[in-house]
Amino acid sequence: MNETTNPLPGRPVRESISEMSEHALPNDANALGNLFGGKVMSLVDLAGALAAIRHARCPVVTASVDYMNFIHPVHIGQLVILRSSVNRVFRTSMEVGVRVTVENLLTGERKHTCSAYLTFVGVDKLGGKVLIPPAIPESEEELRRYEEAGERRRIRLEMRAKRKE
Q1: Is the model's pTM score more than 0.90?
Q2: What does the pLDDT look like over 26-47, one tens digit per residue?
Q3: How confident is the model at residue 21 (pLDDT cuts 50, 70, 90)?
Q4: Alpha-carbon Rg of the chain, whole angstroms?
Q5: I want to staple 92 with a disulfide (CB 3.0 to 4.6 A). Which of 40, 69, 117, 129 is the partner?
Q6: CA distance 78 to 58
Q7: Residues in Cβ contact with 29 at an 8 Å cutoff, skipping those fewer than 6 apart
């Protein structure tokens, strides 16, 4: 069975959209006054999980995180804004995109800090994999992300196969 033969009714991508924010405080910053990259990564994982759970309506676990490039630092006192949504479902796993923006609360200026793609797997109470409802893209942007998620998955699977060799 593949994603096209999934018997569960699909859910629109818009229903998975999640947004969260956190104020960057000194206890999570390095000596330069920038938020630790690991803290940002933790927030990305949490934001991704929120969208995944919203879509799957079951517990999820993080299976993988694609690379992250930090474009702009997050300084103490700034607001970290994370927006996430499911891009595509592959039976028991799904790709979630997370975009991180930083806002200077004094000026209102916003900058894109980083983005990441995470793969989550739906699980039952015993940790077994469960079937996830398909994601239904409705806008051109959602359709583009849906198609690109398929290509990223193909690359991930090729990389995994090469590691097993």
Answers
A1: yes
A2: 999 999 999 999 999 999 999 9
A3: very high
A4: 17
A5: 129
A6: 33
A7: 35, 36, 75, 76
With beta carbons less than 8 A apart as the criterion, state whether 17 and 67 touch. no
Q: Which DSSP category does 123 fall into? A: B
Whole-number Å distance between alpha carbons of 56 and 53: 5
Contact assessment for residue 21 and residue 140, using Cβ atoms and an 8 Å cutoff: no
Tokens of 123: 């699980």
Q: Where in the sequence is the domain holding 11, given as residue range(s)?
A: 3-164
Number of structural domains (the chain) is 1
Residue type, 111: K
Residue 107: give its domain's CATH number.
3.10.129.10
Q: How far apart are CA 90 and CA 67, in angstroms?
A: 20
Element (H, E) at 45: helix 37-56
SS3 111: strand
Distance CA 83, CA 99 (A): 5
Q: What one-letter code names the amino acid at 50?
A: L
For residue 33, the 8-state DSSP code is S
Pull the structure tokens for residue 16. 């998975």
**Residues whose CB is less than 8 angstroms from the CB of residue 95 and which lie 6 or more positions away in sequence, other chains included:** 86, 87, 88, 117, 118, 119, 149, 152, 153
